[in-house]
Write a structure and sequence with these properties.
about 130 residues; four-stranded mixed sheet; 3 helices; 4 strands; about 40% helix
């Protein structure tokens, strides 16, 4: 992985298997979105007494050109499920950011404000 990756465990015992899993997820994400400048993954188990079981909380901070993306509040009693959900959310945020920056570049620095074009003859007929 070329991107600097920082992994922090808070109130959770360090696990080599979990760290390897996080590194694999981050590497895979980087292969799809190469301009990631930094990635910080925080895995913790907050002390909350209102829940029956203990939940893992995952937060991912990503720095990309022009933005800092934050994914947090992904909780689950299974740390691997919480990691999966957090990385899926990070991927969606990266896709949205990539789409927005691509749209701005193609429109000369302006967002596309034109109305969508009708897709079928019925939609054209409805407009009349």
């Amino acid at each position: 992985m070329q991107t600097p990756l920082q992994i922090t465990f808070r109130d959770v015992d360090h696990s080599d298997a979990m760290e390897t899993h996080i590194r694999e997820k981050a590497t895979k994400m980087e292969s799809f979105f190469s301009p990631i400048m930094a990635c910080h993954v925080n895995v913790e188990m907050p002390h909350k007494h209102k829940h029956q079981g203990k939940e893992f909380c995952v937060r991912i901070d990503l720095r990309v050109p022009g933005a800092e993306l934050v994914v947090n509040h992904h909780r689950n009693q299974d740390a691997y499920v919480a990691l999966r959900d957090a990385f899926d959310a990070a991927k969606r945020q990266l896709e949205d950011h990539h789409r927005k920056t691509r749209d701005v570049k193609h429109n000369g620095g302006r967002p596309d404000l034109s109305p969508p074009e009708p897709e079928s003859a019925e939609e054209i007929a409805e407009e009349d």
